[in-house]
C-alpha cells in the first residue's frame, strides 16, 4: 500500500510540474532552464539557454542580465559587460544589471568604472548590502592603483626592479655611483630570494613591494626628477593598456 501511495504522489507531482511548465512561454521555459544550469554550475549550458530565451524575447532585460552572470562565471567579462549594457538599454532602472556590470569591471581591474556602476546600482537600490560592500572594495582598489606608493601598484614592480634600462639610468643619474650600485644589488638580492631574502623569497609579495618602495624613496631623495620620469612612464603605459581594453 505504501508503494502505491508513493507512486500516486510521484504521478501527481509530475503532472503538477507539467501543468506549471505549460503556463510558461517558450522564452520563460528557456530562462528557467538556464537558472537550473546556474544552480548546477553548468555555466556554458546556462549561457546557451539564456541566449535562446533572448532570441525568443529580445526585449527582456532579465535574460541579458542572467546571461551576464553566466558569462562572468566563465570569465567572459567583456561579454558580461555587453549584456549588462543591453539590459540597461532596455530598462535603465534595473539595478541588478549595474551591480553585475560592476563585478565584471572589477574583475577586469577597471575600478573607476566599477565604482560608477555600483554607485548607480545603489542609487536605484539604496538598501542593497551587496552593492555597498562591492562599492567599498572597488573604491579601495581604485585608491591603491592610484597611489604611486600604494600596495596595489598598477605596474609590475618585479619587472621594474629587474629592468636593465632602469638599473642603468638609476646608477648613471645617482650622485654616488658605488652607493647606488650597492643599494640596487641589495634590493635585487632580496627581491629574487637571495641570502638576505629569508624563507619567503620571491613568493613574499609584501617584502618585494616594501623593498621596491624603500628603493624608490632612496632614489627620490637623491634624484626626484628620475622618479617623476618613471611615474610619467607608468602613467603612459597604463593609458595604453586602458585603450587596448576598450578596443
TrEMBL record:
<protein>
    <submittedName>
        <fullName>Small glutamine-rich tetratricopeptide repeat-containing protein beta</fullName>
    </submittedName>
</protein>
<dbReference type="Pfam" id="PF13414">
    <property type="entry name" value="TPR_11"/>
</dbReference>
<keyword id="KW-0802">TPR repeat</keyword>
<dbReference type="InterPro" id="IPR047150">
    <property type="entry name" value="SGT"/>
</dbReference>
<dbReference type="GO" id="GO:0016020">
    <property type="term" value="C:membrane"/>
</dbReference>
<feature type="repeat" description="TPR">
    <location>
        <begin position="95"/>
        <end position="128"/>
    </location>
</feature>
<dbReference type="GO" id="GO:0060090">
    <property type="term" value="F:molecular adaptor activity"/>
</dbReference>
<keyword id="KW-0677">Repeat</keyword>
<feature type="repeat" description="TPR">
    <location>
        <begin position="27"/>
        <end position="60"/>
    </location>
</feature>
<dbReference type="GO" id="GO:0072380">
    <property type="term" value="C:TRC complex"/>
</dbReference>
<dbReference type="Pfam" id="PF00515">
    <property type="entry name" value="TPR_1"/>
</dbReference>
<dbReference type="InterPro" id="IPR011990">
    <property type="entry name" value="TPR-like_helical_dom_sf"/>
</dbReference>
<dbReference type="InterPro" id="IPR019734">
    <property type="entry name" value="TPR_rpt"/>
</dbReference>
<dbReference type="GO" id="GO:0006620">
    <property type="term" value="P:post-translational protein targeting to endoplasmic reticulum membrane"/>
</dbReference>
Amino acid at each position: 500500500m505504501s508503494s502505491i501511495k508513493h507512486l500516486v504522489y510521484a504521478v501527481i507531482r509530475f503532472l503538477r510540474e507539467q501543468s506549471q511548465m505549460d503556463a510558461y512561454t517558450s522564452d520563460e521555459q528557456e530562462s528557467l532552464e538556464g537558472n537550473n544550469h546556474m544552480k548546477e554550475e553548468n555555466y556554458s549550458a546556462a549561457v546557451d539557454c539564456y541566449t535562446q530565451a533572448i532570441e525568443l524575447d529580445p526585449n527582456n532585460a532579465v535574460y541579458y542580465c542572467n546571461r551576464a552572470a553566466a558569462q562572468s562565471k566563465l570569465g567572459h567579462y567583456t561579454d558580461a559587460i555587453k549584456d549588462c549594457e543591453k539590459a540597461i538599454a532596455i530598462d535603465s532602472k534595473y539595478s541588478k544589471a549595474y551591480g553585475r556590470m560592476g563585478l565584471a569591471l572589477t574583475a577586469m581591474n577597471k575600478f573607476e568604472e566599477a565604482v560608477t556602476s555600483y554607485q548607480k546600482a545603489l542609487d536605484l537600490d539604496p538598501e542593497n548590502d551587496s552593492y555597498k560592500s562591492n562599492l567599498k572594495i572597488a573604491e579601495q582598489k581604485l585608491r591603491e592603483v592610484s597611489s604611486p606608493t600604494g600596495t596595489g601598484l598598477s605596474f609590475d614592480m618585479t619587472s621594474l626592479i629587474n629592468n636593465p634600462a632602469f638599473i642603468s639610468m638609476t646608477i648613471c643619474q645617482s650622485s654616488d655611483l658605488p652607493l647606488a650600485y650597492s643599494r640596487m644589488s641589495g634590493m635585487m638580492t632580496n627581491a629574487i630570494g637571495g641570502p638576505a631574502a629569508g624563507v619567503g623569497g620571491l613568493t613574499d609579495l609584501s617584502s618585494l613591494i616594501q623593498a621596491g618602495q624603500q628603493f624608490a624613496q632612496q632614489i627620490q631623495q637623491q634624484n626626484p626628477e628620475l622618479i617623476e620620469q618613471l611615474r610619467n612612464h607608468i602613467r603612459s603605459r597604463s593609458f595604453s593598456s586602458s585603450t587596448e581594453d576598450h578596443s
